[in-house]
C-alpha cells in the first residue's frame, strides 16, 4: 500500500493499492521532489470519473509503468472534489495550453509547484495521434534531465500568465454595477439565441442540465412576465425529464447527455446535479403547477434519500457510471441502467413487456451499446396505475443487479445545496420527512464540518472530518441551506448560523474592492489564489455568496451584507450578455435584487391553521428570491429583525410584505398575500 491508505477520499483510496508510489498533495511531496531533484506528476480526478478509472487500470496498475514512474518522478494524486482550489489552478493552465480540459488531469510540475507540461487522459499505447502515457513520461524525463533551463523558462511563463489572468477580477480592473434591467434583458436575448428549439436546453452535444439558468428564467418570468423565459424553462425541464438523462425508474439525473436530445447519458449521478435539479423542478411546479415537474421533484428527492444518504444523515457525493455487467463479467458504463427487450419479457411476461417497451422506448436496435436501450418516457402513460406497477417491478429487478460504487465522501457545499432543496420540497409538497432529512444533514455539518473557531472543513467520510479547509462555495452553499431551513422551520438558529458563515466570507474571502476569492486569505498558498465568478456544474462560490448575502440582508436589514452582495454581483453585470449560461446563479440573484427582494414576515401562534396557511402561501410565492420569516407574536428581536414590530391584526395571524423593511398594509387573508407574491393560495 502507498501513502493514500487511511485517507477520507474514496478516489484516493481507489489508488491506495496501486504499484505507483502515490503521495497525497502536501508539502512533504514537494520536499521529496526537491530532495531527489525530480519533477512531480500531478494526477487529478474524482471517484465517479469513468476515464479516471480507465487510465488507472491501463497505466497506474501496470507494474512496468509504475516502476518507471516511481524512479523518475514524485507522483501526487488529488481528489478534485476535496481540493477544488488545486484543481482550478492547474485546470486553468491545462485549458490555456491545450484548449481543452477534463479528467483525469495530468500535469507535470517543478518542485516549486510550477506547471510545465499538461494533458488529460493518456492511453497505454499511441492512439489517434495521442502519445502513450509511457512516451509522455519518457519525454518529460528527458526534458527535465537534458533541457532544464528550457523547462524553467516554460514554467515561469505559465506562472506569469496565470497571475495575469487572475488580475482580471482584481481591484482597478474595472468597476461594474450589478445587472440592471437592460443587462437582464440582454442575458435573456443571448440565451434565446443558444436555446435548442427542437430538444430544449442550450447549445449542442454534449448537453448539461442547466439548473442555474432555469432558476434565472423562472425568476425573470416572475418579475417581468416574459413568455420567452418561461417557455425556455418549461421546455428544457420537460425534455430532460422525459429523456434518458433522467432515471425513469429510480429518479435522479445523470451528469450530462452525450447527445443533443438527452437520450444517452454519461451515467454517473452526482449529488450537486440532483440537489440543483430538485430545486429547479420544484420551482417549475411552483410557477406552472406542472404534474410532471412535481413528480420529478419528488422522485429526485426520494432518490437522494434512498441512494445517497449516508448512515450519519448527510449525503454522499456520487454514484459511479460503471458497474459490473453480469453477462460479460466485465465492468461497463451504464450496465446498471440499460435494458434489452428480452429482459423485459423475462421479467414482465409478453404483454406487460410490450407495454414497458412502448412506454420506455426499449427497442431491438437499442439506443445505447450492444442493442441495449436507455429508458425514456416520451409521453405520459394513459394508465398511470399500470405504469407505476411496471415501473416498480422493473426498479425492484434492477436493484438485484450489481450496483455502481458510491463515493461516500460528504462535501459541505453540495450538502448545503441538498439541504436547501429538500427543505423547500418538503414544505411545499407536504413531505415533512424531507424537511427532517434536511435538518439531519445540517446537524451533521455542524457536528463534523464546523470547527470551534467557526470555520468549515470541506469534506468528511463516515462521520470523520477531512483535513482540507472549506472553500468559498462551502460557506456560501451551506449558508444557502441554512437560510432555506430557517424559512421553512422558523428556527432562528439557522439564520444566525448562516450569518456567521457569511461574516467569515466577508472577513476571509473578499478583497477591499468587493471581489471574492475561492480560497480564504489564510489558506495554503498556491501558485495563484483561485478566483472564478462563473458557474460550472455548481454555482460559483462568488455568485452563491452574493445570493446568500442578499437573502441574509433581507432578513436582517444589514446594509453591510447588502452592499457586499451588490458589489459581488458587479461582475455578473459584465458577463450577463456575453456569457449568460455561465452566470445563471448570479443572474438569478440579480433578479432578486431587481425585485427587492421582497421580505415576508408571518406572525401568528405556532400550530394555528391560519399561521400555517399564511406561511405556506408565502413559501409558494414566485417573487424572485423572496425571504420568508415566521414566528410567534412578539418574536421579533435581534435574532430576526424582520419580525420586529409586527403585531397581529385583530388578533389573527398576519402577514407583512416588505421591501427594505418598508411594508405594505398587513393582511390576514392568504388570497391577498398570494396576490402580492405571485403564489397560489396556500
UniProtKB/TrEMBL annotation:
PANTHER family linked to this entry: SPERMATOGENESIS-ASSOCIATED PROTEIN 20
Transmembrane segment boundaries: none
InterPro entries: 6-hairpin_glycosidase_sf, 6hp_glycosidase-like_sf, Ssp411, Ssp411-like_TRX, Thioredoxin-like_sf
Lineage of origin: Bacteria, Bacillati, Actinomycetota, Actinomycetes, Kitasatosporales
Residue ranges of every copy of the Spermatogenesis-associated protein 20-like TRX domain listed in the record: 2-160
Name of the protein in its database record: Thioredoxin domain-containing protein
Natural source organism: Kitasatospora putterlickiae
Highest taxon listed in the record's lineage: Bacteria
Amino acid at each position: 500500500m502507498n501513502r493514500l491508505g487511511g485517507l477520507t477520499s474514496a478516489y484516493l483510496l481507489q489508488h491506495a493499492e496501486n504499484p505507483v508510489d502515490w503521495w497525497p498533495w502536501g508539502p512533504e511531496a514537494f520536499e521529496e521532489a526537491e530532495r531527489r531533484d525530480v519533477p512531480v506528476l500531478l494526477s487529478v480526478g474524482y471517484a465517479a470519473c469513468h476515464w479516471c478509472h480507465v487510465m488507472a487500470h491501463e497505466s497506474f496498475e501496470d507494474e512496468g509503468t509504475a516502476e518507471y514512474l516511481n524512479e523518475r518522478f514524485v507522483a501526487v494524486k488529488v481528489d478534485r472534489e476535496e481540493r477544488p482550489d488545486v484543481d482550478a489552478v492547474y485546470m486553468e493552465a491545462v485549458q490555456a495550453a491545450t484548449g481543452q480540459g477534463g479528467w483525469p488531469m495530468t500535469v507535470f510540475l517543478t518542485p516549486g509547484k510550477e506547471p510545465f507540461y499538461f494533458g488529460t487522459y493518456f492511453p497505454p499505447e499511441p492512439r489517434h495521434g495521442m502519445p502513450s502515457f509511457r512516451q509522455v513520461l519518457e519525454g518529460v524525463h528527458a526534458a527535465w534531465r537534458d533541457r532544464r533551463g528550457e523547462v524553467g523558462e516554460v514554467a515561469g511563463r505559465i506562472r506569469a500568465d496565470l497571475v495575469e489572468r487572475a488580475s482580471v477580477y482584481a481591484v482597478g480592473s474595472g468597476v461594474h454595477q450589478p445587472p440592471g434591467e437592460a443587462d437582464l434583458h440582454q442575458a435573456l436575448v443571448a440565451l434565446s439565441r443558444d436555446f435548442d428549439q427542437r430538444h430544449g436546453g442550450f447549445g449542442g452535444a454534449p448537453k448539461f442540465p442547466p439548473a442555474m439558468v432555469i432558476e434565472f428564467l423562472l425568476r425573470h418570468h416572475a418579475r417581468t412576465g416574459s413568455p420567452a423565459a418561461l417557455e425556455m424553462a418549461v421546455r428544457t425541464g420537460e425534455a430532460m425529464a422525459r429523456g434518458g438523462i433522467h432515471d425513469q425508474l429510480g429518479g435522479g439525473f445523470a451528469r450530462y447527455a452525450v447527445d443533443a436530445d438527452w437520450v444517452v447519458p454519461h451515467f454517473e449521478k452526482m449529488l450537486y446535479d440532483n440537489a440543483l435539479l430538485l430545486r429547479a423542478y420544484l420551482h417549475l411546479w411552483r410557477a406552472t403547477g406542472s404534474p410532471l415537474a412535481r413528480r420529478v421533484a419528488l422522485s429526485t428527492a426520494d432518490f437522494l434519500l434512498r441512494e445517497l444518504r449516508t448512515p450519519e444523515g448527510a449525503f454522499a457525493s456520487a454514484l459511479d457510471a460503471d458497474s459490473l455487467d453480469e453477462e460479460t463479467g466485465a465492468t461497463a458504463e451504464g450496465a446498471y441502467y440499460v435494458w434489452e427487450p428480452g429482459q423485459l419479457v423475462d421479467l414482465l411476461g409478453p404483454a406487460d413487456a410490450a407495454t414497458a417497451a412502448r412506454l420506455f422506448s426499449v427497442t431491438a436496435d437499442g439506443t445505447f451499446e450492444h442493442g441495449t436501450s436507455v429508458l425514456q418516457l416520451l409521453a405520459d402513460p394513459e394508465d398511470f396505475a399500470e405504469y407505476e406497477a411496471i415501473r416498480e417491478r422493473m426498479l425492484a429487478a434492477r436493484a438485484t443487479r450489481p450496483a455502481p460504487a458510491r463515493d461516500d465522501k460528504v462535501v459541505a457545499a453540495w450538502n448545503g445545496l441538498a439541504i436547501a432543496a429538500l427543505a423547500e420540497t418538503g414544505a411545499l409538497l407536504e413531505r415533512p420527512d424531507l424537511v427532517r432529512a434536511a435538518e439531519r444533514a445540517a446537524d451533521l455539518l455542524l457536528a463534523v464540518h464546523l470547527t470551534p473557531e467557526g470555520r468549515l472543513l470541506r469534506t468528511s467520510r463516515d462521520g470523520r472530518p477531512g483535513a482540507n479547509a472549506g472553500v468559498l462555495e462551502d460557506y456560501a452553499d451551506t449558508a444557502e441551506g441554512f437560510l432555506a431551513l430557517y424559512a421553512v422551520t422558523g428556527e432562528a438558529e439557522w439564520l444566525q448560523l448562516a450569518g456567521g458563515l457569511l461574516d467569515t466570507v466577508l472577513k476571509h474571502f473578499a478583497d477591499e474592492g468587493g471581489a471574492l476569492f475561492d480560497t480564504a486569505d489564510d489558506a495554503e498558498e498556491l501558485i495563484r489564489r483561485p478566483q472564478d465568478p462563473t458557474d460550472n456544474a455548481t454555482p460559483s462560490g462568488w455568485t452563491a455568496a452574493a445570493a446568500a448575502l442578499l437573502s441574509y440582508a433581507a432578513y436582517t436589514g444589514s446594509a453591510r451584507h447588502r452592499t457586499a452582495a451588490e458589489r459581488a454581483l458587479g461582475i455578473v453585470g459584465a458577463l450577463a450578455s456575453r456569457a449568460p449560461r455561465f452566470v445563471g446563479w448570479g443572474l438569478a440573484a440579480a433578479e432578486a435584487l431587481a425585485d427587492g427582494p421582497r421580505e415576508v414576515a408571518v406572525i401568528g401562534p405556532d400550530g394555528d391553521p391560519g399561521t400555517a396557511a399564511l406561511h405556506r402561501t408565502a413559501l409558494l410565492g414566485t417573487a424572485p428570491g423572496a425571504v420568508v420569516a415566521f414566528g410567534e407574536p412578539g418574536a421579533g428581536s435581534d435574532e430576526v429583525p424582520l419580525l420586529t414590530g409586527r403585531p397581529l391584526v385583530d388578533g389573527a395571524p398576519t402577514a407583512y410584505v416588505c421591501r427594505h423593511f418598508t411594508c405594505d398594509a398587513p393582511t390576514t387573508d392568504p388570497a391577498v398575500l398570494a396576490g402580492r407574491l405571485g403564489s397560489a393560495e396556500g
